Amino acid sequence: MDLKKLIHRCIKGDRKAQEQLYRKYSAVLFGLCLKYSRNKMEAEDNLHDSFLTIYDKIDQFEFKGSFEGWLKRITVNTVLQKYRKEQYMNVVSENIKEEEELEYEYADVQLSTLLQYVQELPTKYRLTFNLYVLDGYTHKEISELLGTSTGTSKSNLSRAKMILKEKLKKENINIA
């Protein structure tokens, strides 16, 4: 069945179509949830919540642009909204004159190890790191998504990078 038909069936509430949609996109969206979650169980909860939102809002997809991109945006927003509700985003605004850029070469790092280190970051740092480094959001966009200032976004990114750098040093992993 083509994607357009599948979406239209989901809009009508067809459970089999929803199941097909889940099977088709759950792996990709689970990977995205893993980036923003503290552990696998939390990622599974976030995936579940995201699909509930997707099914609820699928009638808002306008068949313009990438459907997968739309799903990813819904997923990220669902996860971020959950963290905002849980008060994880209460941060103290700090004045950072200039973002300290730390360049890393992760050639010696297993992806699973790096993911584990990112997941261990405090929530405000993990979310900012993922949005900026992995998903390409600007500090302005991040501040709007998380309800913080751009200075706080820059500070959180800098601290996330420093924490990751320290974890890698402790494990004797080469970083540039």
Can you offer a commentary on this structure?
- With 176 residues, the protein is mainly α.
- It folds into 2 domains: 3-85, Rna Polymerase Sigma Factor, Chain: A, CATH 1.10.1740; 91-176, Arc Repressor Mutant, subunit A, CATH 1.10.10.
- Helix content is 68%, strand content 0%.
- It has 8 helices and no strands.
- It has helices at residues 3-11, 15-36, 40-57, 67-85, 111-120, 123-134, 139-146, 150-170.
- Helix 2 (15-36) crosses helix 3 (40-57), helix 3 crosses helix 4 and helix 6 packs across helix 8 (150-170).
- The longest helix is centred in the N-terminal third of the chain and has 22 residues, at 15-36.
- The radius of gyration is 18 Å and the shape is elongated.
- Residues 88-107 have low confidence and may be disordered.
- InterPro entries: RNA_pol_sigma-70-like (IPR039425), RNA_pol_sigma-70_dom (IPR014284), RNA_pol_sigma70_r2 (IPR007627), RNA_pol_sigma70_r4_t2 (IPR013249), RNA_pol_sigma_r2 (IPR013325), RNA_pol_sigma_r3/r4-like (IPR013324), WH-like_DNA-bd_sf (IPR036388).
- It holds the Pfam family Sigma70_r2.
- It comes from Muriicola jejuensis.
- Residues 21-87 form the RNA polymerase sigma-70 region domain.
- Belongs to the sigma-70 factor family. ECF subfamily.
